[in-house]
Amino acid sequence: MGGELMTGWCGTVLDVNLTTGCITRCRLDRDLARLFLGGRGLNAWTLFDRVPPGADPLGPENVLCLAPGTLTATLLCLSSRLHVSTLSPYSGILGDGNAGGAFAHTLKRAGYDQIVVSGRAEAPVYLWIEDDRAALLPADDLWGTSVWDATDRLTDRHGNRTSVACIGQAGENLVRQASTMVDKYASAARGSGAVWGSKRLKAIVVHGSRPVTLHDRDRFVSLARADRKYLATDSVQQEVAAVYGSHYGMTHWFPGYRHFQSELPADAVPRALRPEAWKQYEVGRSGCRSCHIKCKNIYEIPGGRRKGERGEALEYEAIYCLGTNCGIEDPVAIMEMENLADLYGIDVIALGNTIALAKDLYHRGIITDALTDGLPLAWENADAQVELIHKTVLRQGFGNLIAEGLYSLARHIGRGAMDYCYHVKGLSRGPHPPGFYALAHAVSSRGADHLRGRSWSVGDNSPEEILTTLVDRRILTDDPVHSITAGQRATAIADAIGRCKGAVNSWVCAVPLIWKSALWDGLAELLEAATGIDFKREDIVDTADRIQAVERAFNVRQGITIAHDGLPQKPEVKESPEGEKQREAHFRMLRRYYRRHGYDPDTGIPLTETLERLKIPDVGTRIAADGPYPPWDGPPLWDLDAYPRGGTRV
Question: Quick one: which of 456, 454, 458 has its CA closest to 446?
Answer without folding.
Answer: 454
